[in-house]
Amino acid sequence: MSVMAHISVPADEFKLARTLDDHDSLRIGVERVVPLGEGVVPYLWVTGLPADRARRKLRRDEDVERVAVIDHVENAVLVRVWWTNRRYAFLETLVAVEASCVDGVVRDGIWNLELRFPSRVSLSDFYQECLDHDVTLEVNGIHDSDGRDRSRISAALSDRQYETLRTAFEAGYFAIPREITLKELGDRLGVSDTAASQRIRRGLRRLLAEELSSSR
């Protein structure tokens, strides 16, 4: 299951730091559902400047090779951007784990991005790579692609552990009296009762370890 993450990162570690430095009212938003890769966030909405000024300002940015105005609505301008080949550890890591940018806004020098990762493993790999490369970022929230929130505690679980505990809870495994047997739960998950039991125990242990360590 894919995972959504809300992440904040300084512009100087992603894109357009120079454009934002001297214009406090400028706001730039990413056109929704943009795949990352060679065509990184090619369409941007710019507010706070007329179309001609927005284009000139972007063209002076060291990240931008070429820019064209596509459309404008009220006080917002839609532009197509061709980027230079400047390298950023944050961006290269996103591309490496095959993430997609669902939404993003940059203001006051900070990009606030909503990113889709193929799995929680790829999100974890991305986060660790950023730490290894001293990238400054903040994870503001994580949730599954089905819209269900993943708290800090549940984020400690593997996908299998999370799905097992969620299924067990919804099926009444933890109810008193129990509403489903371990074998029935295993059948629902497509695993043996032993495997289901191990996932539950390990998942609960990780939840407890996370909660108890955070409360110290």
Automatic annotation (TrEMBL):
<dbReference type="Pfam" id="PF15915">
    <property type="entry name" value="BAT"/>
</dbReference>
<dbReference type="InterPro" id="IPR007050">
    <property type="entry name" value="HTH_bacterioopsin"/>
</dbReference>
<dbReference type="InterPro" id="IPR031803">
    <property type="entry name" value="BAT_GAF/HTH-assoc"/>
</dbReference>
<feature type="domain" description="Bacterioopsin transcriptional activator GAF and HTH associated">
    <location>
        <begin position="19"/>
        <end position="152"/>
    </location>
</feature>
<feature type="domain" description="HTH bat-type">
    <location>
        <begin position="157"/>
        <end position="208"/>
    </location>
</feature>
<protein>
    <recommendedName>
        <fullName>Bacterio-opsin activator</fullName>
    </recommendedName>
</protein>
<keyword id="KW-0804">Transcription</keyword>
<dbReference type="Pfam" id="PF04967">
    <property type="entry name" value="HTH_10"/>
</dbReference>
<keyword id="KW-0805">Transcription regulation</keyword>
